[in-house]
Q: What sequence folds into this?
């Protein structure tokens, strides 16, 4: 091993050659999704800053969700965005403070609030979409129109498979110790 070379250890503590690790990572779909998600988030946050939108991707995601589902609760938005309720609460408070969303009482539950985008929020969402459009164009540029449609279709099938698609994964049965 050369000086300064990083050694990767697997779960059992065994070492693997760096080339093997790189090859295994490139062949792993989950790893590629993680890389794509991280790169996309970084590029979108950068585009939002460059265009002076003044909101992060997390804020924009909440506005997007409210455009699709006006009146959603904070808990619903948190599940949709895959973040904790506390983190979503922070996002919602900032958007409310800035006048982009408003809170209304939920008719069926006095303890929960419904959130709605304001006209200012709709304008900010349009600015965010415009800022992100070049990022998505650049990401999809290497794909033909047919490949883009196929990618969309395949990703939708993967989401359906994991979000219930007829069968949910059951937790492994616990064994009892004596």
A:
């Amino acid at each position: 091993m050369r000086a300064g070379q990083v050694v990767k250890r697997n779960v059992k503590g065994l070492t693997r050659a760096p080339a093997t690790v790189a090859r295994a990572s490139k062949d792993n779909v989950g790893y590629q999704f993680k890389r794509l998600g991280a790169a996309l988030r970084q590029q979108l946050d950068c585009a939002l800053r460059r265009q002076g939108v003044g909101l992060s991707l997390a804020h924009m995601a909440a506005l997007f969700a409210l455009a699709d589902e006006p009146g959603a609760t904070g808990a619903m938005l948190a599940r949709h965005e895959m973040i904790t309720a506390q983190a979503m609460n922070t996002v919602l408070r900032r958007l409310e403070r800035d006048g982009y969303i408003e809170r209304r009482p939920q008719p069926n539950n006095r303890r929960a609030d419904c959130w709605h985008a304001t006209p200012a929020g709709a304008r900010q969402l349009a600015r965010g979409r415009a800022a992100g459009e070049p990022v998505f164009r650049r990401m999809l540029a290497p794909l033909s129109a047919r490949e883009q449609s196929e990618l969309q279709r395949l990703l939708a099938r993967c989401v359906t498979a994991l979000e219930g698609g007829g069968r949910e994964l059951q937790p492994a049965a616990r064994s009892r110790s004596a």
Observations:
- The longest strand covers residues 109-117.
- Residues 100 and 121 are 4 Å apart (CA to CA).
- The first helix runs from residue 18 to 26.
